[in-house]
Amino acid sequence: MTSVNSTKGAASLALLVLLYCLLLTALSRGMGETFGVFLLPLSTQFDWERATVASVYSLYMVCLGLGSLLSGMAFDRFGARFNYTVGVTLLLTAYTLAGFLTNLWQFYVAIGICAGFGAALVGIVPTQSLVSRWFDRRLGTALSIAYAGQGLGALLMVPLAQLIIERVNWQAAYHSAGWLFAAVLVLVILLPWKAIEQGAVDNPRRVQQGKSRGGPSLAEAAKTRAFWGFFFIFTTTAIGIFGISLQTVAYLIERGFSEVESALAFGIVGMLSFAGMALTGLAADRWPRHLVATCSYFLSFVGIAALFLMQYQASWFLLGVFVATFGLSAGARGPIITTLMAEIFAGRGLASIYGASNLGQGLGAATGAFGAGLLFDLTGNYNTGFLMCTLFTMAGAALFWIVPEIRYAKR
pLDDT digit string (tens) for 329-370? Predict the structure, then answer.
């Protein structure tokens, strides 16, 4: 039998690992991002205020952040099989139950807690560790492809969820997701995890005797300026981006676009974010990463400005500008950060370190999503929310220049 570590076998398995990570990231986070199209149906059926419904997504993002820390610690201790089995089981439970819910606290438990922790266990934290074991050269490109699963998931699942909601109801959309994750659980059970967890023979980040060797622990990394730089980049950027994204579908409907048009626009944002993440990874392998990140932040600013101007003229042109610029930049910083962290903190604590820093994204996304909804309820418009998102996005861009370990990291 040909060894999986033969040149051809290793290359094939590396590709399969990358595709698997892309798939799980797309399904788990893509389903999470569909909450934007559930915002109005839930508000209407249960007579809940916008901030009340958004608080479910905020809890989801908090649990996604906390779960990222636990996901990294679990991965370093128990391995990939544990993460993916438990994570997919939680997602299956969350979305199967979601279609039967009638009370706010039930949405908190199912969508907020179970789906949040489930997505964290199968998301970018284990992805970063697995992919970095199989790819050495062009690691940034490989990680950007896997990371782009978040955009691909939004592209596929947001319009699909909207279509099911329109043709049947929101309960059927959640039931369909439950069946999808049931099929994924079967795949997870059948995969050859021992071979997958090892990594390529010629990769310096390959697992040895079942464990990664060398490198700083989480406690050691937490004492460094680079770690906290990554943490606060995640936090500030997430406040800006998620404060916009959760409200996008509802905002566009209020501006006069149909529900299907609004969901499709949001789905195209997801499609472009898939392309944007991949292109960012390629660019970051060639040019200084802080410059590449700055360009992506500029596109985010243009997108927010276009959305703001739609209050005065809801044109297809402005919608196109928003979709193109916000889509290409949404999530584009993620591949840069994951690559930098894989290089700076490679070793035994990588998953835990990345998970801990990613906690900042969860907290920031929760703050942005809830804050934008609350500001809308208090003011009756989105202007204060747009300002909040712009300022925090600017803070994220500034950190790429302020923290020396990030700005002058080798390419």
Answer: 887 888 788 778 878 887 778 888 888 888 888 788 878 878
Reported as half-sphere exposure (CB side, CA atoms, 13 A), residue 325 has a value of: 18
- Domain enclosing residue 389, as ranges: 16-407
Closest CA to 59 of 93, 99, 105, 90: 105
Position 83 in a domain: yes
Burial of 154 (0-12, 13-18, 19+ CB in 10 A): buried
pTM of the model: 0.73
- The encoded tokens of residue 209 equal 């005797």
Q: Which residues of 348-372 are buried (b: 16+ CB within 10 A; e: fewer)?
A: bbbbbbbbbbbbbbbbbbbbbbbbb
Tokens of 233: 């980049």
Say if 2 falls within a structural domain.
Answer: no
Report the C-alpha dihedral over residues 129, 130, 135, 138, rounded to 10 degrees.
-60
CATH code where residue 327 lies: 1.20.1250.20
The reply to whether 3 falls in a domain is no
Contact 315, 252 (CB under 8 A): no
